[in-house]
Design brief:
4-stranded parallel beta sheet, two-stranded antiparallel ribbon, Rossmann fold, 8 strands, 53% helix, alpha/beta, 16 helices
């Protein structure tokens, strides 16, 4: 649906006003109590309204590309409400003349959250029921077009696949019943099938592209994507087999400003200091349990590769038998790895073995969020096999990251390729908002105990 963000934003403004009325009714029981317009009251209401809208935007509740199931929607609304609440407390502390009662604020935010959940879930249902989702047409019929078509079809809650339009002399590797009639030109086809997005996924030479017709479509409001860009937006990964150095240079992103680095580092230090008391409570119990479970040190130290491929010593709670790689050398961790102790298996599943890495964060070796730090022995091997692997070292590695929350534990070159797709996406699209979402998703992974090995 075109203008999806505007519709949801308008509906949320209605929800905000409804929550305002609801809060007044719950507290004062009638609308006549002290309900007359004043400048402070108007400013106070505007601040509260902006807080919930900004927090919702921060949690990508207006994203055109992100579809959420009901549990995910509820969780993101809950986080957005907490962000709004904390932001309002900070603002009202700095501007005490605009104080809002805690009871009123609680009723307002809870009411807004319930109304927002109902509106957004209903909106998604209507989008699917009446096929109001963006309609996608793919230029090309070859291997790349088939790959993009599979992505569009697998994201049926995001898009509707209109079909494929043959270009040049490409082989046909897509379903024949999805090939559109070549009797019409590109713009006529777009109008006939009400296409919203065109993905150029062809292996033909550039002079075979109908560039003028593509331009005409763009000037009439149709979004045009090349295959790597659409793949990135639809999947949250990078199509590394189809991107070139020129694509890296001219595409948006891959630019982390000094200000963002300062904010990220400040956030890392703050989170690490907040986690420190938990570490102090955990350490005596963990140390005793590790010593009783198997002989060896409490902490595990290992050289990893950090920002700009600088090696550093990573700290974890020991989960393997002492000197587990003495005879084998560096090897990937496997499912049901015999080197892992009984207690170590529990620590890995709960991610408790990762907590000492916050010491690395305080030291500046790592960030809370970033690519997983790999071992030097694997790095040299992966750089020779996987294109653009070195680019993941342009930022600090993280305790958690986009790849860690979206892909299971990696234990092979094939897994490294898949995780690199996520790492490059994170590098290209880095924002503080994305870091917040990754931290939230990390908590879900920890509580579900999935992905550890």
């Amino acid at each position: 649906m075109k203008n999806r963000t505007k519709y949801l934003l308008f509906l949320d403004i209605i929800c905000a006003n409804g929550a305002l009325i609801l809060a007044y009714l719950l507290i004062f029981e009638d609308m006549s109590h002290d309900f007359h317009p004043t400048l402070p009251g108007f400013v106070r209401g505007t601040v509260v309204l902006l807080s919930v809208l900004v927090a919702s935007y921060f949690m990508e509740l207006y994203s055109r590309e992100r579809w959420l199931d009901l549990a995910g929607l509820a969780a993101r609304i809950a986080v957005a409400l907490n962000i709004s609440f904390l932001g309002l407390l900070l603002f009202l502390f700095m501007v005490p003349t605009l104080t809002v009662g805690e009871r009123f604020l609680t009723y307002y935010l809870l009411g807004f959250g319930v109304l927002q959940f109902g509106i957004h879930s209903s909106f998604q249902f209507v989008e699917q029921k009446f096929e109001l989702l963006p309609r996608v047409m793919i230029l090309g019929t070859g291997e790349l077009a088939a790959q993009i078509g599979d992505i569009v079809s697998s994201h049926e809650r995001h898009y509707i696949l209109t079909g494929f339009l043959p270009i040049g002399s490409e082989p046909v590797m897509v379903p024949h019943d999805k090939i559109l009639d070549k009797g019409l030109n590109l713009f006529e086809t777009v109008q006939k099938f009400r296409v919203d997005k065109i993905v150029v996924a062809v292996g033909a030479q550039p002079h075979e592209y109908p560039l003028q017709e593509i331009l005409t479509c763009k000037l009439h409001g149709v979004a045009i994507f090349d295959a790597p860009t659409f793949y990135e937006r639809a999947t949250g990964r990078m199509l590394i087999e189809r991107i070139t150095p020129e694509w890296f240079v001219f595409s948006q992103g891959f630019c982390i400003s000094p200000l963002r680095r300062v904010v990220k580092r400040s956030t890392d230090v703050l989170i690490s200091l907040l986690v420190a008391p938990l570490l102090l409570l955990l350490f005596p119990v963990a140390a005793l349990a590790i010593k009783l479970d198997s002989p060896g040190p409490v902490f595990f130290r290992q050289v990893r590769v950090g920002e700009n491929e600088t090696p550093f010593t990573l700290y974890k709670l020991r989960t393997m038998n002492n000197n587990a790689e003495l005879t084998t050398g560096a090897v990937w961790a496997q499912e049901s790895d015999p080197r892992i102790t009984r207690l170590g298996n529990f620590l890995r599943r709960c991610r408790l073995d990762e907590f000492p890495q916050f010491y690395n964060v305080l030291r500046g070796d790592m960030s809370v969020v970033g690519p997983r730090p790999e071992r030097p022995e694997f790095i040299e091997q992966l750089k020779e096999i996987i294109p653009y692997y070195s680019e993941r070292h342009l930022i600090k590695p993280g305790v958690s990251g986009w790849a860690q929350v979206n892909y299971p534990y990696g234990a092979s070159v094939a897994d490294a390729i898949e995780k690199l797709r996520y790492d490059l996406y994170y590098l290209k699209n880095f924002t503080i908002q994305l870091d917040v979402m990754i931290i939230f998703d990390t908590l879900k992974v920890v509580f579900s105990q999935r992905g550890g090995r």
